[in-house]
Specification:
about 250 residues; mainly alpha; two-stranded antiparallel ribbon; 12 helices; elongated
């Protein structure tokens, strides 16, 4: 015999229905994203030097790439301007600023070495020129020495001196300088002698172009070593048989 189906008590059925409703009523809540935390900048003193260097190099590369086209255009314009720009005339460049400190003339310890010495030999051995002026004089000598034989003649010397002083010296003044050193038309000047003659020319021209109004103590004073050498010159030359041209040159210096 079949047993009759047992019905659930009404209380149990109500409990099941309540649990189903509560389960349906519950919805899955979305997880909130964690708040973004702003990174505080690290002080430069606390950073690794290599990191700072890498950051700086990256910024420089970025700037170079951004400005490359602009820089190329500027360079092209400058190059085009340099090609089209006319050469500046010598008279626009200004005369060389004369100074007594660009060279130093010395005397030998034994003054008897001056006996039988010519002015050219004295200049070749006892004239010291500053490096800055040496560079200027060497450039002028290279331009004057067109045949590249290492020597120039009197005419080339005259032209070179006028270029150095931007036509501020006349042919007559150049001739006076040549007379002081007893140079003739056959005299040849190598680079060392040419440098010494240019230094002597600047020393002699200083009195022509510099007046009391334009005189500057910084340029007018000689080297102290030279002042000490030429102090009591007549007393040092006493008893020494020097040639009159040498005596005249030394007194003029």
């Amino acid at each position: 015999m079949e047993e009759p189906a047992t019905e659930a008590p009404p209380e149990e059925e109500d409990g099941k229905k309540g649990r189903k409703k509560s389960a349906k009523g519950k919805k899955k809540k979305k997880r909130k994203a964690p708040p973004k935390v702003e990174k505080t900048p690290v002080p430069a003193l606390m950073m690794d030097p290599s990191e700072i260097l890498n950051m700086e190099m990256k910024m420089r590369r970025k700037n170079l790439l951004e400005n490359k086209a602009e820089n190329d255009a500027i360079v092209a314009e400058v190059q085009e301007f340099e090609v089209k720009r006319p050469k500046q005339q010598a008279w626009l460049q200004g005369r060389l600023a004369l100074s007594r400190q660009i060279s130093r003339f010395e005397l030998p310890m034994d003054m008897r070495l001056l006996e039988g010495m010519s002015p050219i030999e004295y200049l070749s051995n006892y004239c010291i020129v500053s490096k800055r002026r040496q560079n200027l004089y060497k450039q002028s000598f290279s331009k004057a020495d067109r045949d590249r034989d290492g020597v120039i003649n009197v005419k080339e010397l005259d032209k070179a001196l006028k270029q150095i002083h931007v036509d501020g010296v006349t042919t007559e003044q150049v001739q006076k300088i040549l007379d002081v050193i007893q140079a003739t038309d056959d005299t040849k000047f190598d680079a060392k002698l040419f440098t010494a003659v240019c230094a002597l020319a600047e020393r002699m021209l200083y009195t022509y172009f510099v007046t009391e109004d334009t005189d500057d103590i910084m340029y007018s004073q000689k080297e102290r070593v030279e002042d000490a050498d030429f102090c009591a010159l007549e007393w040092k030359l006493h008893g020494v048989k020097v040639n009159p041209p040498i005596r005249k040159l030394l007194q003029m210096l």
